[in-house]
Amino acid sequence: MKTKKHIIINDTTLRDGEQSAGVSFSLEEKLAIALALDELGVPELEVGIPAMGEDERESIRQVSELVENARLMVWCRMHSDDIALSKNLGVQSIDLSMPVSDQQIQNKLGQNRKWVLAQIEPRIEEALELGLEICVGGEDASRADLDFLYQVLEASEKAGASRFRFADTVGIMEPFSVYETISQLNSMSDLDIEMHAHDDLGLATANTLAAIRAGASHVNTTVHGLGERAGNAPLEEVSMGLRRFFNQAYDIDMADYSSVSQLVEQASGRHVSWQKSLVGEGVFTHEAGIHVDGLMKDRMNYQGVDPAELGRDHQFILGKHSGSHAIIHAYANMGIQVLRQQAEILLEKIRYFSVQYKRAPAEQELRHFYYEINSILS
Length: 378
Hints:
Blueprint: E1 8-11, H1 13-17, H2 27-40, E2 44-46, H3 54-66, E3 71-77, H4 80-84, E4 93-99, H5 102-107, H6 113-129, E5 133-139, H7 146-159, E6 163-168, H8 175-188, E7 192-197, H9 204-213, E8 218-221, H10 235-246, H11 257-268, E9 285-286, H12 289-297, E10 315-316, H13 324-333, H14 340-357, H15 363-377
Parallel strand pairs: 1-2, 1-8, 2-3, 3-4, 4-5, 5-6, 6-7, 7-8, 9-10
């Protein structure tokens, strides 16, 4: 097995992310997202599909003029016409995508394995003539015959490609099979292996991390996991996973990720779930009394991820599951000293309110409760 490499995130928000049904970025939004990801420190960006038309190619050119640090890639079918349209776009690399499963070779292309293998060398030569680094994209690789994948990698490496994208196109794999498959591919080829995971079974991040452990050197992500159907591996999850499990990705400024998250949420029109891992509004919010009490004593009691790494902090709200310690703490933050007896009465009011209105009471309402019970007690 090859020596473990530094992992490169290739974020494809501007390509696969935009392919999400109903998502369409304007030029201004595309430039803003590209700049934000570059400033964040994401090392590679897949920024478009040249064959989509002149408007798309012009947007790629403008992205290339704007981005200062990230390497840029475009996505093409393994067609001569697509490759020719990738000339003079200001990018460094190209993904030449080709179905590699019998399912798609026969039922999408109407071809056979021999025909697929015959395309690799001439198409790679055409892309190399444009001065581009080549990634061969194995579409539907997760359903491909492993022996045939070996032939594809061998032909790609021989022709001058430097990377192979293993695409779990329909999201059918699980981490154990990913690990076994990527380990085998990594052991038989000197090509860099890139994992492209889809989230149809909710396993895109787990499969991406399994591929890294098996020797993949590159991984695809999108902000929030935006993408076809259930989406791709989320950039925020993979980045934090790389930190936690592989001591990498610290060059990506996750403390400023909220601004990127908000930008993509607005541009895509896709609202981020309140409980979306790492970026959801509520993922560092606590109500349960036992949790709040534990966090007030020591944040590590109920902190698996430090919100400060994402430029955030814990938030405490009052509701049905709150305890008296949380009541006293919340009112103290409002400048009101609450005694234990008062806290017990307030707790009943807050619990009733949260059940009736399905939300935490606002500060004005909390103040009203306090004045109400205070007049009764006095």
